[in-house]
Each structure stands twice: as C-alpha cells, then as structure tokens.
Amino acid sequence: MAKKKWYKPAALLFVVLAGSVFFLPSSAQAQTTQQKLDQLQSELKQLKQNIANIEDEAERAQAEKDSLQQQNSIIQEQIATLDGGIDAAKEALAAKQADLDQKRRDIEESEDLFEQRLRAMYVMHQSGALSTLLGVNSFEELLTASTTLSRISIADTDLLAQLAEQKAAIEADEAYIEKQITEMENDMAAKEEKQSELAANLVAADNSLTQLEAEKQVAEADYAATLSAYNQARAQAETEMNQSSSNSEYVGGAFGWPVPGYSGISSYYGPRTLYGQYDFHTGIDITGANVYGANIVASQAGVVQTVRYGSTGYGYYVILDHGGNYKTLYGHMSGIAVQVGQQVSQGQVIGYVGSTGNSTGPHLHFEIRVAGQQVDPLPYLQG
User: What is the DSSP string of 128-148?
Assistant: First the structure.
C-alpha cells in the first residue's frame, strides 16, 4: 500500500511536469511565430511602398532626362547658329583682309612713285621741279610750272592721306571682326563644354532609369510572388468556407454585428480594384477610429472550425460553423481568443481587430457563406 501511495503522487507529478513541458515550448513557439508573422507583415507593406517609391523616382528621373534633352537641343541650335556666324565673320574678315592687303600695296606703290619722283628731281636736273623751273622763259611760264608742281605735290599728299585713312578704317574693321570671332569662339567653347556636361548627365540619367527599371522588375517579381501567396491563402480560406457543416441544422436566429462600437465600412461586398487588378470583395471591411485591438465577437453561435495564423491573405483568421452550411469568417485579426472545436455563443469575444495578412490598415474582414455561396453580409446583419 505504501508503494501505491508513493506511486500516485509521483505519477501525478509526472503528469504535471509532462504538461508543463508540453505547454511551455508551445507558448514560446507561438510567440516566435507571432514575431515572424509581424515581421512578414511589415515586409509586405514595405514591398508595396518600395514599388511606389521606385515608380516615383523613375518618373522624376524621366522628367530630368526630358529636361536635359530639351536643354541639349537648345545648346545644339545655339552652337549651329554660332558656327554659322563664325563662318560668316571669317568670310567677312577674309574680304577685309584682302581689301587691306590691296590698300597696303596701293600705298606702298604710291609711296614708291613719290619717292622715286623726288629722287629724280633731286638727282636729274633735266626732270622734276628744278629742270622745270630752269627751263622757263618767262614769268608766266614760271607761275604755270610752279602751279603744276604744287598740284602734283598736293595730289600725291592727298592720295597718301586717303590711302592711309582707308588703311586705318580697314584695320579697325579687321580688329572688330577678329574680336567678334574671338568672342564667338569663346562662346562656342563654353557651349561645347555645356553640351559635354549635358551628354554626361544624359548618360547618368539613362543609367539611373535602367537601374530603376531593374529594381522595379525585381520588386514587381517579389510583388507577384506575394500576390500569388495571397491568392493561395484566399483559395485555402475558400476551401475551408466551402466545407460542409458538421451540424446539418442551422442554429437559428439573426446575425449580430461582429465589432461592437464600430460601424464604419471601408470596403463593401462586390467588385473592386485590388493591387491594380480586378477583385471581387467577398465580405465587408469594418473599421473606425482607434479600432486596432477592438473586440471581435461571434456574429452567431457556433463551433470554431478554423483558426489560422497567416502572413498573407486574411492573415490571422477564424471560421465559425453555425450549422446548416452557414459560416462566418473573421480576417486580419491581431490576436485570436478561441481554439478549433470550441463552442462559442453569440457575442462571445473570439479575437481582436488587427491588420495581419494583406491589409492596408486595421479593420475586420467579415464574410457570411450560405451553402458555400458568397453573400452580402449587410442584409443578414441588418435583418
């Protein structure tokens, strides 16, 4: 008997310890799973934001490239205009230089003739002013000869002065044209430097757009994978909702509002656009100010058919079976307060509003299915 008395407490202790060993790791594992799911949820939201950021950055880069191309076109037009102006100025300068060279030759020839004439008058008494003056026979002839020599001298002097003035004018024109050409060439060099800078910026803009396009393709591939996981999760929920009820008889009565104190609806039952694609919303999304963490209650009495902790689709969700193939689904919960197989009463807390899975903010996704068919929950809730 003593042995039996010793064995029972020991057996009881073993059961307690075994229970402790069983539940403690389960709790720790649930906490770790919760952390991982929260992280996945954060990554999913960040992925959506990343795609939007990449598209915005690509739009800005394209606008910058368009602006650079426009500036480059303007610079090219200005360079073409300057190039034409420089060519015209060089042609004008060449003509001026030709005129100037001719004037220089004319002046040199006139100066040579004038010097030769003076030298001849000095050396040879038979010609020039001296022979002319010595050869006169009367005062009248002397006056005529003097007048003639004076006119020759004045004409030579006027010619030299006129040629010198023309030479100075041509040299001034030449200097002005050379100055213009220098300024245009400097302007051309500056614009060519600007064009080189724009070309480098255009290459950088193209590289940036190429990189952004590659990043967008990676992000879209990740997004497609996430969307596929979302659709798979929804398909799983669809399968679970379409399972036959364990009880063929509906519990009866009207359905109650699943989030007491919150009546806002952010998305109604029916067609909508989700993630840029056509989607049919199979329930209603109930939300409101400070709704996160609010109680979610059973809309009708029933048995907990499904409890799922997911990082995609409906996230954390619960499916209640109300008999007669009437079922309700509660999605995107932040926490779940029931277990599979548990009997719940109408109005009993089964979880808490959250934003798990594919969700843009705290709300409850609520569905009612009748014999596997989607129905608009509002008429049932308002009936």
Answer: HHHHHHHT--SHHHHHHHHHH
Per-residue pLDDT of the chain (383 residues; tens, 9 = 90+): 444 333 344 443 333 333 333 333 334 444 444 455 455 556 666 777 787 888 888 888 888 888 888 887 887 787 788 778 778 878 877 887 787 788 778 777 776 776 676 566 555 444 445 555 555 565 555 556 556 556 666 666 776 777 778 778 878 877 887 888 888 788 878 878 877 887 888 888 888 888 888 888 888 788 777 777 767 777 777 788 888 888 889 998 999 999 999 999 999 999 887 666 778 889 999 999 999 999 999 999 999 999 998 877 888 999 999 999 999 999 999 999 999 999 999 999 999 999 998 888 999 999 999 998 889 999 999 75
Residue written as tokens 């109604």? Answer: 268
Compute CA 95 distance to the chain's CA centroid, rounded to the nearest angstrom.
55
Kind of pairing, strands 343-344 and 264-267? unpaired
Between vectors from CA 300 to CA 295 and to CA 301, what angle results, nearest 5°? 105
Q: Where are the alpha helices (DSSP H) in the chain?
A: 2-123, 128-134, 139-241, 377-382
CA count, 13 A, side-chain hemisphere, 332:
24
Token couple for 353: 């509003």
For tokens 């929260």, name the residue. 38
Q: Take residue 156 and report the two structure tokens written for it.
A: 């030579």
**Residue partners of 269: CB distance under 8 A and separation at least 6:** 281, 282, 283, 284, 374, 376, 377, 378
